[in-house]
Amino acid sequence: MIRGIHHVAVHTGEFERMLRFYRDIVGFSEVSRSEWRDNEFIDQIIGVGGSEARQAMLRGGTCYLEIFEYQKPAARPDNPLRPCDRGYTHLCLDVTDIEGEYDRLTASGVVFYRRPGDFGALKAVYGHDPDGNVIEIQETRDDHEFALARLKCPP
Questions:
Q1: One fold for both 7-72 and 91-150?
Q2: Which of 63, 73, 74, 132 is least surrounded by Cβ atoms within 10 Å, i.e. has the fewest?
Q3: Domain boundaries in the chain?
Q4: Residue 25 DSSP class
Q5: Which CATH class is domain 7-72?
Q6: If one looks up domain 91-150 in CATH, what number appears?
Q7: d(CA 85, CA 53)
């Protein structure tokens, strides 16, 4: 039985910078931190031979965010994903005061596409974390249902 989503993981080339962003600026709490090298067991589990990495698990409300930095093998540089690209496209942060969080995160260097938009059942805006990963901040009304069919998207 699948109970739900436990965590989302992101790989970075600047571990401490991403850790500071999600822990100190976003406000997640650090739960654990580890690293490995020359570990055949982990290599078999992740399907990457000769891996060497460090990792931190952060908690934000009911979900966790895992941050990795692999020293080996070297990353294959690609363009950052956009919301319309295939694969995991963004991380959504649930907030209670979207305007306040927008201002606070903007002051700390987050670049958003625009000011938060009002969709009726929720307010939301997309931007980027320090590595260029797409993040969304979203504030929902108390009676919000997670049925996208009920949203009325503005033109």
A1: yes
A2: 74
A3: 7-72, 91-150
A4: I
A5: alpha beta
A6: 3.10.180.10
A7: 27
41-87 residue pLDDT tens: 888 888 888 989 999 999 998 889 999 888 888 776 666 666 556 66
Task: Please state, in angstroms and as integers, the Cα–Cα distance from residue 135 to each residue in 36, 109, 116, 143, following that order.
Answer: 28, 13, 13, 24
Q: Are 69 and 14 in contact (CB under 8 A)?
A: yes
> Can you tell me the distance from the alpha carbon of 22 to that of 30, in angstroms, rounded to the nearest whole number?
9
Quick check: helix, strand or coil at residue 16? helix
CA distance readout (Å), 56 to 15, 30, 64, 75, 110: 9, 7, 10, 18, 21
Residue 106 has pLDDT above 90, yes or no: yes
CB 26 within 8 A of CB 60: yes
**pTM of structure:** 0.77
